[in-house]
Amino acid sequence: MGWTWVIAPAIAVLSAIFAAIWLLYDRMNDRLRALELDMAVSKTQLTPLWATVQKVIVDELHHVGHPEMDRLLEKLQNLSITPEERIELKAMLEARALDYGPEITESERKSAILLIGIMDKVLIEAATAGDKLVNLAILLLFWTSNLMGNAIRYWR
After folding, report:
1. pLDDT, tens only, 121-143
2. Do 111 and 60 meet the contact criterion of CB atoms below 8 Å apart?
């Protein structure tokens, strides 16, 4: 009977701690499942919106006499554009945004600027929330592009 007075209360305390940890774990799992459901609902609502906006802008930017840009816009719509082609398309869009020639309308210039941002937005939404490296790379691409500088100079 020497150690019983120590072991019995220790087992009771450890059981209580284990039960508390288990309840906390269970609650966290329930909250995680609720958050996953909310994210899935948000993704199904937002991604089609941006895809639709992207399609409308791409349709407006098709232009006679620019076959390379039209080819890349088609690949963007078909979701078959490579990262290198995406960079090339962004450069073409920036050039179109700064082109004040008579064949480019004001609406096309603004659409070119918008499409660059929307392309980045679609990529960010397509990345999974847990893929921090992809999100970081996309954000770096977005913020390092000189879209913001061109947009500010353009709208002043």
Report:
1. 777 766 654 565 666 666 656 55
2. yes
